[in-house]
Amino acid sequence: MKFMVEGKVLITSAFFEEAPSLEDGRILLLWHDGTDYIFIHGKAFRRDWLLKNKIGFNNEIQLHEDTYFVAMAKYLAAKENTVYIRDPLYLWQYNKKSVSRSYDNFVLQTYDQLLKKNAALTQELLRRGMFIEAKGIVCRSITDAYCRLNSKKWNTQENAELIKDAEDSVAIFLQKYDYIFKGSDPKKIEAFLNDTRNTLIKRNEFDIDAVIPFDEWVERLRK
User: Do residues 93 and 115 share a domain?
Assistant: First the structure.
């Protein structure tokens, strides 16, 4: 409240997430630093600033609509009066009956909608002349898909059809924005790739020897 009175346009804080342990089901507390462009948790926005910049939920997106809103707001707020609080001011409670928690593979099942959101975000950033940010969305979409769709958690025999459908969605996204991807800095792409891949490796969810190299995977999508 203090910062809002001072006229800050965005306040974001670290937050805790309740998550069940994969080993024994105990509820663990995961700490998020709050600098993400995904979760709406632990963030407050000035309404007049949102209206002035025409930032809102995209009515054409039915799923992952909150991440579209958060990303647009944070991209535009990055150059303005924002505050980051390291203290975790929010607890994201685990509700196994929620829409996303009711299905173990909710994100995998809705991967086409995730790519639809990323495409809408890319288009809006391009429309606003934010080319660097749009390039980041495209590169992260492709590198994140490679890591997630090849993770031990998702890439199983039971999920074979879902993985194929998801890769088809990625191929369509790549076809539309390949001109951006090809023009991106290879070092940036490698950094995005390592960021997600290393996170999954730490969780023992990614077997780097069991998947084809990233460049080969991208070429397969292009074909």
Answer: no
